[in-house]
Each structure stands twice: as structure tokens, then as C-alpha cells.
């Protein structure tokens, strides 16, 4: 967890200036966290996902089943950007969600990252919104069946 939190702090708190009290939440204790490290063990990127009751609680009205993984907090440190690490982390979430028998991945993407997720097969839906950070987002979804 320290490596995951270090990357998230670097990307969200320092670079994007999201207040620390908005970045850390009680859902970290219920999430599946993935961490990518370099050859020296240094943390390079992270992502988390929720499923089941925690996902339904946090995303009430959006996630109403136990078959959806909610991908969030995808962060890649500056030194690893452009290497494909972000895509690899998304694919790792999809693989783990599929292993758990989940059928969809839902996420709320910062609008500047829509193209990244679209290239990975995600489809945006609904209007743009501010999820509290002041950064515009859009909801996106992808079915896992048949992958």
C-alpha cells in the first residue's frame, strides 16, 4: 500500500493539486490495489478497483449489481508515462475482474483521458460532471465478456 499511495500522492495531490483529504477515502480498505514497480522495486504506477457491496455503496445509482468492477485512482508517475504502463494496469484490472467472474468495468475518467480509455475499448456515456475535484469527468463502461 505505501507504494500505491506514493504514486497517487505524486500524481493527484502534487501534480493535479487535489486536496489530500479528497484523495484518500474509506474505500481504500475495501479495494483491490495493483502496483507496478520498476526493476529496482520503485513504484511506477497504481490502480484500484471496487466490486460488490463497496462498489454499490460508493456508486449508488450507477452500480446496482455485483457483476461490475469500478476502476479508479489510475495513476502513472511522470517517469513511466508513455510506456504503456497505464494500459497494462487497466488490462490487469480487467483480467482480475474477469477472474472474479465480473462482467463489466465502470470508471469515471478525467475528460482529458477519454481517448486513452476509448482506445482500450471503453465507451463514454452521460454528460460531463465534476466529481468533486474541480476536474471534469465522464462515465465510461466496458463489457468483459468475450475478452
UniProtKB/TrEMBL annotation:
Acyltransferase found in the keyword field: yes
Domain N-acetyltransferase intervals: 1-145
The EC number on file is 2.3.1.-
Gene Ontology molecular-function annotations: acyltransferase activity
Q: List the Pfam families hit by this protein, alphabetically.
A: Acetyltransf_10
Keyword list (alphabetical) reads: Acyltransferase, Transferase
Q: From the UniProt annotation, give the residues forming the signal peptide.
A: none
**Enzyme class, spelled out:** transferase
List the PANTHER family. AMINOALKYLPHOSPHONATE N-ACETYLTRANSFERASE-RELATED (PTHR43877:SF2), AMINOALKYLPHOSPHONATE N-ACETYLTRANSFERASE-RELATED-RELATED (PTHR43877)
Recorded protein name is GNAT family N-acetyltransferase
- Organism encoding this protein: Streptantibioticus parmotrematis
Q: What is the lineage of its organism?
A: Bacteria, Bacillati, Actinomycetota, Actinomycetes, Kitasatosporales
Amino acid at each position: 500500500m505505501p507504494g500505491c499511495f506514493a504514486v497517487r500522492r505524486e500524481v493527484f495531490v502534487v501534480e493535479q493539486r487535489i486536496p489530500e483529504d479528497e484523495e484518500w477515502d474509506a474505500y481504500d480498505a475495501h479495494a483491490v490495489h495493483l502496483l507496478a514497480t520498476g526493476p529496482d522495486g520503485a513504484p511506477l504506477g497504481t490502480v484500484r478497483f471496487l466490486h460488490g457491496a463497496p462498489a454499490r455503496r460508493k456508486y449508488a445509482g450507477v452500480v446496482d449489481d455485483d457483476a461490475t468492477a469500478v476502476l479508479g485512482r489510475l495513476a502513472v508517475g511522470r517517469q513511466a508515462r508513455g510506456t504503456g504502463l497505464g494500459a497494462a494496469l487497466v488490462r490487469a484490472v480487467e483480467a482480475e475482474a474477469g477472474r472474479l467472474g465480473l462482467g463489466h468495468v465502470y470508471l469515471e475518467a478525467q475528460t482529458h483521458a477519454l481517448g486513452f480509455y476509448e482506445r482500450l475499448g471503453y465507451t463514454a456515456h452521460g454528460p460531463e460532471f465534476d466529481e468533486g475535484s474541480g476536474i471534469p469527468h465522464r462515465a465510461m463502461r466496458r463489457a468483459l465478456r468475450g475478452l
